[in-house]
Please model this.
Amino acid sequence: MIKYAIRLHNNDRDAFLILHAAPSSEGHPLCKFQWYITKDKNLAGQPIEDEQYESYTIKTQRIKEEGYEGLYLYCKFTYIDTNQENKTEFIQLFSDVNKIIDSGTIFDDISKFDEKGNIIKQ
Model:
């Protein structure tokens, strides 16, 4: 999974999270996707309605609003030609991006919005 966080301007806790399931396309060009939320990494999650795309974007504020605080997010993707199912890693969600990082999630890139809304490297 490829993971990006973009922190809000003048706010180190709130961020947009962009998560990309990124299955290998070598030999398997088409996939079906479904994102899930679960309380326990050992239990099957509940599908998130209408989240059937390779990428999933969520703002930390929405994590709190949706009641996802402390829950785990993952994507199940199925190669259409072989019907082989796979899962991404699990990411524990928090309304504070620092807690997500402290929980062990390693982001591929963490950027920040500047005062004009441009994305800048930290």
Observations:
- Residues 2-116 form a domain with the Immunoglobulin-like fold (CATH 2.60.40).
- The chain has a mean pLDDT of 92.
- The beta strands are 2-7, 15-20, 31-38, 46-47, 55-59, 72-79, 85-87, 91-92, 109-113, 119-121.
